[in-house]
Specification:
With 402 residues, this protein is an alpha+beta fold. 32% of the residues lie in helices and 24% in strands.
Length: 402
C-alpha cells in the first residue's frame, strides 16, 4: 500500500550548469542538422571544461555531411552555432568564454551497420535506433501535470536565469542548482519543509550586506514560485550553504551530455529507462518514445482517467513495432489499466507507436530541441512546434476508444 504521509525531494540545475551547457550544445547540433535535413541522423555528445568544448559522435545529414565529407562552410557554421549557444547562456568568464574557448569537432559519419537497421528499405519499415525501455509519467499535483517538487525546482532556476539576463539580478552568474522538499499528506503536497538554492555569484556576494541581498532575492523568487500555503516559518532554507560560489560552470566542473536524466524527466518521482535525450535525433527511441509516453500519460490524466499514470514502452534496435506497452495508474484509474492499454493500441493516429508513427504524430523532425535541454523536457508549454508532447489533444480519442 502506498504511504499517505512522507517527505519527497527533487532537484534541478540551471542552463549554466556544466552538464546542461553540454546538453544545450548537443541539441544545438541536433537543431542545426534537422533544419538542413529533416531525416538527419545525429548522436552528438559534448564535453565542456575550462575554456574548451569538444564534440564527438555519429552523424548523417544532407548538405552538411555526406559520403564521408563535410560540405563547404559546414564546420564554421557548427562552431558558430556552438559559440552562440554558450553566449546565450551567459558565459563570458576567464575560465569559460564563448568567444575565446577552444573548440574541437570530432563528429564523424554514422555506422553503416546501425543505418541498415534503422533505415526503411523495401518492405521493411524504419526500425528503432536502439533497444531500450522508456517511461512516461503524469500526475495532478500541478497545472503542468508534473511532480510538484520538480516543477517548483525548475521554475525557481528559470526565474533566476530570466532575472540575471534582464539585469534585475546582476549579481547572479549562470551556474546554479535548486532542490525542493515537500511533505505529502494523503498523497498530496502539504508543506515545503526545505529549499536549497546554490547559485554562482559575483565577487563579494558571500558575506555581509551583499550576501543578505542575495539571500533575500532567492527567498523572494521562492515565494513567487511556491504556493504561499506550502511555505511557513518552519520552511528551512539553505542558500549557498558551502559559502562562496564564484567559480562555476565548466570551469568549476567538467560537463557531459546526458548526465542529468532525472532532472530532465520526473525528478525521481517515476521510473527512468536510463537513456538520455539531448544530442539525439528522433529516430532514437530513447528520446522519441520517452516523449510519446509522457504525451500518453499526460492525456490520460487530463482526460480524468487517473490522477497518476506511468507508461512504459520497449523496443529492439532495427525493429519498428514496440515489444510491449504497459500502463499503471497506481490504483487511481477510473477504468482498468488493461483497457487503457487496449484503447491506446486502437488509436490509428498514433501509428502503432512505431518510431515513424511517433515522429509523424508529434511532428518531431523539426529543429525544436535546444529549448528542451534546460529546465526539463516535460511540464513545459506546447507553443507552435515546440514541446508537442505536452499537448492534451488526445483526450477525446482516449475517451472514444474506451
Amino acid at each position: 500500500m502506498a504511504r499517505a504521509t512522507y517527505l519527497f525531494t527533487s532537484e534541478s540545475v540551471s542552463e549554466g550548469h556544466p552538464d546542461k551547457v553540454s546538453d544545450q550544445v548537443s541539441d544545438t547540433i541536433v537543431d542545426l542538422f534537422l533544419s538542413k535535413d529533416p531525416e538527419a541522423r545525429i548522436a552528438c555528445e559534448t564535453l565542456t571544461t575550462t575554456q574548451r568544448v569538444v564534440l564527438a559522435g555519429e552523424i548523417r545529414c544532407k548538405g552538411v555531411y555526406e559520403n564521408g565529407a563535410w560540405a563547404p562552410g559546414a564546420l564554421d557554421e557548427i562552431e558558430t552555432a556552438v559559440r552562440n549557444t554558450i553566449k546565450d547562456i551567459g558565459y563570458e568568464q576567464d575560465g569559460f568564454h564563448w568567444k575565446t574557448l577552444q573548440f574541437e569537432n570530432l563528429l564523424h559519419g554514422q555506422s553503416a551497420h546501425i543505418a541498415q537497421g534503422v533505415d526503411a528499405s523495401g518492405n521493411k519499415d524504419e526500425g528503432a535506433g536502439d533497444q531500450g525501455i522508456m517511461f512516461g509519467y503524469a500526475c495532478d499535483e500541478t497545472e503542468d501535470l508534473m511532480p510538484a517538487t520538480l516543477d517548483y525546482s525548475h521554475k525557481i532556476l528559470h526565474q533566476m536565469a530570466a532575472d540575471r539576463k534582464s539585469g534585475k539580478a546582476p549579481f547572479l552568474e549562470p551556474d546554479s542548482k535548486s532542490q525542493v522538499t515537500l511533505r505529502y499528506e494523503n498523497g498530496k503536497p502539504a508543506a515545503a519543509t526545505a529549499i536549497v538554492v546554490s547559485t554562482q555569484h559575483a565577487p563579494g556576494y558571500d558575506q555581509g550586506e551583499k550576501k543578505a541581498e542575495l539571500d533575500a532575492y532567492v527567498r523572494g523568487v521562492v515565494a513567487d514560485i511556491i504556493p504561499a500555503d506550502l511555505l511557513s516559518d518552519a520552511t528551512e532554507y539553505h542558500i549557498n550553504p558551502t559559502g562562496s560560489f564564484e567559480i562555476g560552470g565548466p570551469d568549476g566542473d567538467a560537463g557531459l551530455t546526458g548526465r542529468k536524466i532525472i532532472v530532465d524527466t520526473y525528478g525521481g518521482a517515476a521510473p527512468h529507462g536510463g537513456g538520455a535525450f539531448s544530442g539525439k535525433d528522433p529516430t532514437k527511441v530513447d528520446r522519441s518514445a520517452a516523449y510519446i509516453t509522457r504525451y500518453l500519460a499526460k492525456n490520460i490524466v487530463a482526460a480524468g482517467l487517473a490522477t497518476k499514470c506511468t507508461i512504459q514502452l520497449a523496443y529492439a534496435i532495427g525493429v519498428s513495432k514496440p515489444l510491449s506497452l504497459y500502463v499503471d495508474t497506481h490504483g487511481t484509474g477510473t477504468v482498468a489499466d488493461d483497457k487503457i492499454e487496449a484503447a491506446i493500441a486502437s488509436i490509428e493516429k498514433l501509428g502503432g507507436l512505431t518510431p515513424r508513427g511517433i515522429r509523424t504524430h508529434l511532428g518531431l523532425n523539426k529543429p525544436i530541441y535546444r529549448d528542451s535541454a534546460a529546465y526539463g523536457h516535460f511540464g513545459r508549454k506546447a507553443e507552435g512546434d515546440s514541446f508537442p508532447w505536452e499537448k492534451t489533444d488526445l483526450v477525446a480519442d482516449l475517451k472514444a476508444a474506451l
